[in-house]
Design a protein that fits this description.
The protein is of the alpha+beta class and 671 residues long. It has a 6-stranded mixed β-sheet with strand order 12-14-13-15-16-17, sandwiched between helices. Strands 1-2-3-4-5 form a 5-stranded antiparallel β-sheet. Helix 16 runs parallel beside helix 18. The chain is globular, with a radius of gyration of 29 Å. The two termini are 45 Å apart. Bound molecules: zinc ion. The site of zinc ion has 8 residues, from loops.
């Protein structure tokens, strides 16, 4: 917990060109510094650092942010780690905030959970390496699977003896409490007071955090007992949440960044085999089906994922689910299938490292083209199902964010299926519209206060049995501004003005309660917040609503959150949004300055009319959206009374729409 004050001191001391200069060789050009981008390969520099704005932007790959986010992206630090790095660089002592008793207790508990997990890891390793039974059973098992001692050490593999409470007794003797043993799940407690080791008689695979701390264990049974599960994992705890962790990421992260690519395999042993075969950029979901949080973890290091799953029915099914999740986050997806019955581990054991690397290189294919190939084979076998099968691939193509890539797929599939290209293109367009509509509905539901749990990867809405998994997109991706629906675009535009110019003062004319026209010098934040509130409007996108609410809260305390403060927010989502909104106008003015030698009319001068226009369009779009929804519902609504009510509402909205247009033009004028 770094105090707000210390945080501000660190940010004030930070000079972005200094920080980035530690990693990238920069040259001064005009007001900026430029260099070769560290996030993509390039020979001519397109990476700009602006000391005055405190931000960087790559015009080649689009990466952007401030000094803190540079460290987070480049060094894979967490937010507090990045702050600590900066504090060290600028010799600032970190003053920690006084914790409440509850926070302190929670923190002590987390510390204890980390300690006991690390203690357990050491115990399991020593039991395997230093005891006769450990060497014979545990180490013997790993050697039999072809693992070298070096790789066994790298992954912290160990052995938990087949005794009821060998570990529990040892831990208690070393002063660890029953509470921490129970919370980490290392010991199972029964109602009658009996306790025993959860992982007894198993080889142990510690699960590490990104920075290498032990969070939990995944343990494989060695005996042939039929009723026992093959793998037992730690239960979720204060430090371990299986949906947020990837097995092997700690060991793989640097390789993933270097290769700009990540292999996704099914199991722990697949990860380890791949590493041992020299393919170190490999991770696996942790005893769970692949989740959207895990996709986002990978996305911190690379947008390119190659799925390597078994080619049995379950494996193919898992591949499709994983691919759709990856697409929904804008990732590029490829896949490799092994011959039936083989996985990377068994393949490497039989054929060796070089053969595995060659197999991966030769059999990797674009996921959509793979799916198209399989589909065309199925159509040949079963021509009656053609339209259904083509429908499935259309749904996958619709998830691809890039327009050019999409039309490539359409072209290739059209010739593969002997279907007119235009027909396929129309179907893809329909599927995209359907996805957007579903996303929008979901956002509406969330915005209207329906308190639903965060949808997890397993519980995503299914359009129908044969249809695609429709990805739930919480907030639009930042690079998708152009393809946002008009209402969403107006929301984003208004939030952009609020974030960037909230603290600028403008002359604002409005009608007060007595019906008089008043002109006042007001901060943009007050103008926007009061106008939106008095029109009883809200944002469909929960992230925008969050930013709005933060501004409102600050105004209540007579404060205004500046763009720089938003860009340094503790909330990663808010921070990313602020930064991406801040760099957009920057590009425009930069080009004007260099290409034409003249500046655009300053944004400050244009500000009052920008604010007015943004509010005007925002409100109009809200009304239009509701009108559309009314019309849609009218088409299917069977109940006569309900239809009457809808028609009435539509009429009201029409009037409101007209009134807003007129009102805003007459009452609100910018000076
Ligand atoms: Zn770049």
């Amino acid at each position: 917990m770094i105090s707000q004050e210390t945080k501000q001191r660190i940010l004030d001391a930070t000079r972005i060109e200094d920080v980035i200069g530690d990693f990238v060789s920069l040259k001064k050009r005009g007001a900026n510094h430029i260099g070769c981008c560290p996030f993509h390969n390039e020979k001519t520099p397109s990476f700009y650092v602006s000391p005055s704005k405190g931000i960087f932007k790559c015009f080649g790959c689009g990466e952007s942010g401030d000094a803190v986010s540079f460290l987070m992206k480049h060094e894979h630090y967490t937010y507090p780690e990045a702050l600590k790095w900066l504090a060290q660089k600028y010799n600032i002592t970190i003053e920690e905030e006084q914790l409440t008793e509850e926070q302190q207790q929670r923190r002590d508990m987390r510390d204890s959970l980390f300690h006991v997990s690390e203690f357990a890891e050491k115990y399991f390793v020593e039991t395997m390496m230093d005891t006769e039974i450990g060497q014979a059973v545990g180490l013997g098992y790993f050697h039999e699977r072809g693992l070298s001692d070096e790789i066994i050490k790298k992954f912290g593999l160990g052995y938990s003896p087949d005794e009821w409470r060998a570990f529990t007794d040892y831990a208690l003797k070393n002063g660890y409490s029953k509470e921490v043993l129970e919370k980490t799940g290392l010991t199972i407690f029964k109602d009658d007071g009996k306790m025993y080791d959860r992982f007894r008689g198993r080889v142990t695979f510690p699960i590490y955090s990104v920075s290498g701390r032990v969070l939990g264990f995944s343990c494989r049974i060695l005996s042939k007992e039929k009723q026992a599960a093959k793998y037992v994992n730690s239960p979720d705890s204060d430090i371990y949440n299986k949906g947020h962790i990837l097995y092997g990421l700690f060991q793989a992260k640097n390789a993933i960044s270097r290769a700009n690519k990540c292999y996704l395999v099914e199991g722990n042993l697949d990860v380890i085999s791949m590493h041992q075969s020299g393919v170190e950029n490999t991770v696996a979901p942790c005893g769970t089906s692949f989740t959207i949080d895990q996709v986002r973890l990978i996305k911190r290091y690379t947008p390119n994922v190659t799925i390597v799953f078994d080619s049995d029915a379950a494996g193919i099914n898992a591949t499709h689910k994983a691919a759709n999740l990856l697409f929904s986050e804008g990732m590029k997806v490829r896949c490799v299938l092994f011959p039936d019955g083989d996985d990377p581990d068994s393949f490497a054991q039989r054929n060796g490292s070089t053969a595995l690397q060659e197999y991966l290189a030769q059999h990797e294919e674009n996921f959509i083209l793979y799916k198209a190939r399989i589909t065309s084979e199925e159509i040949k076998r079963d021509p009656i199902r053609k339209s259904e099968l083509v429908g499935k691939i259309v749904d996958s193509i619709a998830l691809v964010p890039d327009l050019i890539e999409r039309s490539d797929y359409i072209q290739q599939c059209a010739s593969l299926f002997a279907t007119p290209e235009q027909t396929l293109a129309n179907n893809v367009a329909k599927a995209i519209a359907l996805h957007k509509q579903q996303e929008w509905k979901l956002q509406q539901q969330q915005a209207s206060g329906a308190q639903t749990d965060q949808p997890s990867a397993d519980s995503q809405p299914q359009s129908d049995a044969a249809g695609p998994v429709v990805p739930v997109v919480q907030a639009p991706r930042q690079d998708e501004f152009k393809s946002l629906n008009p209402a969403e675009a107006q929301e984003r535009n208004l939030i952009g003005v609020l974030i960037r110019f909230g603290d600028s003062n403008i002359n604002w004319t409005y009608t007060n309660i007595e019906g008089k026209e008043v002109t006042e010098l007001m901060p943009v934040a007050s103008v926007i917040v009061s106008t939106v509130l008095s029109a009883k409007l809200s944002f469909a996108n929960p992230l925008y609503q969050k930013v709005f609410d933060q501004c409102l809260e600050a105004l209540k305390q007579e404060k205004i959150i500046t763009a720089t403060q938003f860009a340094a927010s503790d909330d990663a989502e808010v921070r990313d949004l602020a930064i991406s909104l801040m760099v957009q106008p920057y590009e425009v003015s930069e080009r004007w300055l260099t290409d034409k030698g003249i500046a655009t009319p300053s944004e400050q001068q244009r500000l009052p009319s920008d604010v007015r226009d943004s509010l005007l369009h925002f409100r109009l779009k809200k009304v239009e959206s509701e009108m559309d929804a009314c019309l849609q519902q009218l088409k299917t609504e069977p109940d006569e009374d309900m239809r009457m009510a809808l028609v009435q509402r539509f009429g009201q909205l029409q009037k409101v729409k007209k009134a807003i247009g007129q009102d805003l033009r007459i009452v609100i004028t910018a000076r």
